Amino acid sequence: MNALACAWRSLVRQPARTSLGIIGVAAVGALLFDMLLLSEGLVISTRTMLDSMDFDIRVTSTDQMPGRGPDIADGPAAAAQVSTLASVSSVITLRREDARIDLGDSRPAFGSVLGIGGGSGRPWTIIRGTDVTGDRQIVINEFAAQVIGAEPGAVVVVRANCQDGATAPPALDFRVTGIATFTFDVLGESGSGMTDTSLADACGTPGAIPADFLMVRSTGDAAGAAADIDALSFALLASTNDEAIGQMQQRGFTYFQQISTVLTTITVSFALLLITVLLTVSVNQRLGEVAALRALGFSQGRVVLDVLWESVLIVGIGGVLSLPLGLLMAVWLDGILKRMPRIPADLHFFVFQPEAIWIHGALLAVTALAAAIYPMLIVARLPIATTLRNEVVG
Amino acid sequence: MRPPECRYNASVARLHTHQRRVLVTGRVVAFTLIGILSTSALPAQEPQLPSILVARQLAALEGIAIGDEVELASGEPGGSARRFRVIGSYEPTPDPMQLGVASRGVRMHLTDLLALTRDAGTPAGTEHVEGINVALRNPENAQEFANDVNARIVGVYALLTEQASGSGSTFVVLERFHMAIATVTIVAATVFLLALTVMLVEERRATVGVLRLIGFPAKRILVQVLIEGVLLASAGALFGLALALASENLINRFFQWRYDTALIFVHVTPTVAMTCVAIAVPLGAVATVAASWALLRSGGLRLARR
Fold first, then answer.
1. Which positions ≥6 away from B268 have C-beta within 8 Å?
2. How far apart are CA B118 and CA A256, in angstroms?
């Protein structure tokens, strides 16, 4: 019988403790797997969302994140200035405000409204109807459409609530041209889009068209285009998608990386402790048996290998079970975190990536080896004659 | 990644909000400006310059010292810049939402802020403010006061400070997330505990058998096991609490250094301590009894058999 089969029989002989060991490793491994998904999940998810918008540069007035800092005072002028650059393919201005949308006596829809100006490309995708082509037209998301009961062709009343708008903005009629999904749609929140001039009208400040930021598509070299924009005006600060992700990692989202690191360390330590204790106690209870095997001619290496295989089997089976368990837990935990206010529906905190499985496997393999060291030492140093004598006397 | 720059188009933090509100408690004048035009090296001293306080992080970032003159503007460079004298620095109120972002705030008198940000066409005294914090002589009347303000003043929304964050706020969600993680950890710990107690009980199989043979009833041994479990779990819970208390300061210092903030990240409150003990002790006791249950149902002879 080889070492693996022998280790398997040792484990099967004690089903309760083996099952508990495997379940413990599965629970801890699932948490470990989730922490690996969490560590880069938000960054990967955000990058996917940014890339999906087909713009590779954002231009703001300060180094604050878009929407956090002051507006670009004259959005169309800034966009026109940027679009003159040879390295720039397309520019749109984006302004986000809050709005209430009513249709007759139905329940109003509260949420955000985007005012877009400039070239081609929109941060939304039409799923029914058509895009806005002029003033007093609006596209709304599915949630808003359901809340107010509107479909393309309906005329809705929009009351915008703008940062630098009039104290009492007007209630204006808009025709719904289409139903759209917005890249940064928030679950359970109304979203809508219109032209920048329409939004300025809705804000009660028709002459003023500020922009939260500009979205720029380069001709290919995003970093070069960003440098050109920076050189264009001191009042404009361009950042590529990579830089935006870097800012995000540096600022607001390090929390999840920190918690991931801390919990990864804790879970690995926990698994290490669990397996070490299980194997040590198990070996201590079988010292006589091990000594007898040695007396029968089993080599030191062979009995040590038995212990190592026991560790590998417990961690291996527990580790395999932890993957589906971890995926289920990730869905559950992601659902909890996505209840945070203003989190886009397409943004995920836990994102699966193949590397996570390899890292997970490597960490568990190291854990299995490390956990087996102490019990292996006990077995290796076991004095055969003394142990057998003690067993008999005992 | 380019290093952050000091932009000349500094602007005022939001003065005109969607929902003006009265926060009951707090103080009245506390506004923040973002950005700074230039520091020191400004022309000749002017008497009676309005004074400002500069956030500690901004002072460090831009090399601003007490006594320096700075220019602040709410728009493009050369627009409505005004000079101020820095009379001190302050530690910004810790804000978890600004974690990792160096505060670029300054504090000034409201009249100076309004003068700085007022449009040419806006008559003095008609500006908007974001909110007014009110400290009541009788805080127990806060709700009544808020109701009264809401009824009397159109366009103003008063709410209690504790209501301002809202139940769906980020931190309520984070708390749920932490609770979920804690639940998984507790499940794993319970399995660990069960495995340990199963082995512990197995080791004492012969002892329990002898006790049964000399006449100890199973119930008596079970009580003994239960007491042992409670004692062990209590000791473990106390050790865990001691470890948490000992590491609390260490963790806070690390993260305060890491994020350059005065935020407190870990705080072991009496409620947290009580919750831990309330979970750990019964769990330990139940695990011990559960592990011993099968053993105690076996006969004494069978247990004592070698």
1. B241, B244, B245, B248
2. 41
Strand-strand pairing, A137-140 and A172-182:
parallel
pLDDT in tens, B78-107: 567 888 999 999 988 877 666 666 677 899
B220: Cα separation from own chain's centroid: 48
Q: Is B194 exposed, middle or buried (0-12, 13-18, 19+ CB in 10 A)?
A: buried
Residue A133, SS3 per DSSP: coil
CA distances in angstroms from B242 to A5, A135, A158, B235, B247, listed in the order given: 44, 66, 58, 10, 9
**Which residues on B lie below 8 Å from A63 (Cβ)?**
4-5, 7
The amino acid occupying position B273 is A
Distance CA B209, CA B20 (A): 75
For residue A171, the cross-strand partners are none
Structure tokens at B30: 């506390």
pTM: 0.70
Phi, psi dihedral angles at A98 (to 5 degrees): -95, 150
- Count CA atoms closer than 13 A to A80's CA, side-chain side: 4
Q: Indicate which of B199, B200, B261, B292 best probes the interface with A, i.e. most A CBs within 10 Å of its own CB.
A: B199
- Please give the Cα distance from A366 to A360 (Å, whole number): 10
The verdict on a CB contact (< 8 Å) between A340 and B174 is yes
> d(Cα B111, Cα B37) in Å, to the nearest integer?
20
Smallest Cβ–Cβ distance between B9 and the set A70, A282, A339 belongs to A70
Centre a 10 Å sphere on the Cβ of residue B165 and count the other Cβ atoms it contains: 11
Spatial separation of the C-alpha atoms in residues A10 and A7, rounded to whole Å: 5
Question: Helix A287-296 vs helix A300-337: angle between axes, to the nearest 10 degrees?
Answer: 140
Q: Report the C-alpha gap between B238 and A37 in whole angstroms.
A: 33
B118 pLDDT more than 80: no
Q: What would the pLDDT profile of A13-72 be if each residue is shown by its tens digit?
A: 888 888 888 888 898 899 889 989 988 888 888 888 888 888 889 888 876 666 666 778
Calculate mean pLDDT across residues B170-180. 81
Look-up of token digits 């009995």? A303
From the CA atom positions of chain A, what is the Rg in Å? 31
Contact B180 A332 (CB under 8 A): yes
Q: Which of A205, A269, A281 to mutate to test the interface with B (most CBs of B within 10 A)?
A: A281
- Answer yes or no: are the C-beta atoms of A174 and A198 closer than 8 Å: yes
The residue in chain B having the minimum alpha-carbon distance to the alpha carbon of residue A238 is: B2
0.85 surpassed by complex ipTM: no
Candidates B99, B179, B191, partner chain A, best to mutate (most A CBs within 10 A): B191
